[in-house]
Design goal:
360 residues; alpha/beta; D-Maltodextrin-Binding Protein, domain 2; 2 domains; twelve-stranded mixed β-sheet; 31% helix; 16% strand
Amino acid sequence: MGAVTSLQLAVEPPPRAFGAAHAPRATARGWDFLGSCPAPLRMRMRDELADLLRDIHRQRGEKLKGCMPMGQGGRTPFERLRHIRDLDDFPKLLVSADHGNAFNRAFHARHVETGAFAAPQPSGASPAFAEAGLIDPRGWIGVYAVAPFVMLVDRARLGGRKIPQNWADLADPAYRGEIALSGWRPEGAQQWRAFNQFFLVAVARLLGDKILREVLANLAGLAHSAQMPRLAGTPNSLAAIYILPWALADMCPRRDRTEIVWPGEGALAFPLWMTAQSAHRDRVAPLADYFFAPRTARWLDHNRYPSLAPTGAGLPEGAGLAWPGWDFFRARATASEIKRITRLFHAATEKLDRGESLCA
């Protein structure tokens, strides 16, 4: 028997890169980096950013304070960003997948509109992103990737009906009771607490209220978007047409019975975005650069979140994108407009729950 080699065991845990065990979980103030991303990307992105934060500490001797919640329930800092009034309290680099308002109106007017924030957005993205209007003309917000919403069609359930090729096609009465949107509500709740508000707003902006009402009249129901690829093509399929992110649609294993449709008007591009305080841009540059690095772009593209990095190549050939636009989201009337569009959705789902005709 040969000599036994003893292994040196690490008795000290690796240094924490995100937060601290005693830090209040939901505080929004004082972060150098505050980030979130869609759940399928979260583990890898958080691990790679943690490594980067440790590298910055080793190389520069500077410990940046970072937070990237894992989404395990409870309050998060993102819910409290809009309550911040002082620029010094706001994250130096904010990376988000939320469509809610990260800035209250007074903060936006005082700081964002006066140049306190800038988009760490390199040039060279695929022209499809610029054509969709995703490059902020004011240079305040940068978009590093998008989550394109597409259709997942259950051909078996659709039967002899034509496969829709455009968002406008979904208004056809031939699809009555055959469209599923993503949504979730607690058992016994009267209204859906979570639903695809982005789809509603994007379709209303792209095609108008009339088409949106007709699409809602064709609802079969709502399901969690992660369940949709499990249901499509099975005997338990909820609908013939599911609306969901491309990343999830691509997970459906029953390719012989289902089909992904990239609509002719363009997939609805939900932006994954960031903004940095101009005064701290150099300090947080290594973190911002990570999101546009070739290695990051490759795995984002591979996971069906097309990257806006100059090396990004995640869009299908000839594929277009559609998005409501920066002017819409910055307009004073936007909040009331979203509420109005949401009321159309609730009116349709309440009829669905009561078993009434949605086309009445």
